[in-house]
TrEMBL record:
This is Lipoprotein. The keyword Signal applies. Keywords: Signal. It comes from Homoserinibacter gongjuensis. Residues 1-25 form the signal peptide.
């Protein structure tokens, strides 16, 4: 009799995560489906994107690569600002961070996760983002994003 109870309890414990997993949407899937199209639509120089995510108890952070046609400093500066604004606005919840780099379009079939191939120092300075530059990328944490764009989810 006790063996039957143990088997039933064990089966219930093992099945619970599987049953509950269907009750919640994937936060990464929500970010992917909302952020990528918004970023591409934000600036005519942006042709495509690549997103990579990190998740944890604090939420979802992401690395965003934008693929651009015009690699001039002025065009990249406009694309950086447009991409960050769109990514932040389109996020389904406050991102823990956004890291952004830039590469030349078209997007390759096999994306290398190294930093983008377009130097962004001058563009970051022109865009007012030089204090967020990390190597050849821009990185803003949630506090930086809220300071720059205002509280997440509140229309400005």
């Amino acid at each position: 009799m006790n063996t039957d109870r143990i088997v039933a309890a064990t089966a219930a414990l093992l099945a619970t995560p599987l049953l509950l997993s269907g009750c919640t949407a994937s936060p990464v899937g929500d970010f992917r489906s909302q952020v990528a199209p918004a970023v591409i639509a934000a600036d005519s120089n942006i042709r495509d994107t690549q997103l990579s995510f990190s998740t944890g108890p604090a939420g979802v952070g992401f690395w965003l690569r934008i693929y651009v046609d015009d690699a001039s400093d002025d065009a990249v500066a406009r694309s950086l600002v447009a991409a960050l604004d769109a990514a932040y606005s389109a996020s389904p919840s406050l991102p823990t961070s956004i890291q952004l780099d830039v590469a030349r379009a078209p997007k390759p079939d096999d994306v290398e996760l190294a930093l983008g191939d377009i130097p962004i120092s001058a563009a970051a300075e022109a865009a007012g983002l030089s204090s967020y530059r990390l190597n050849n990328s821009i990185e803003l944490g949630s506090a930086d994003l809220e300071q720059r764009y205002g509280p997440w989810g509140v229309e400005g």
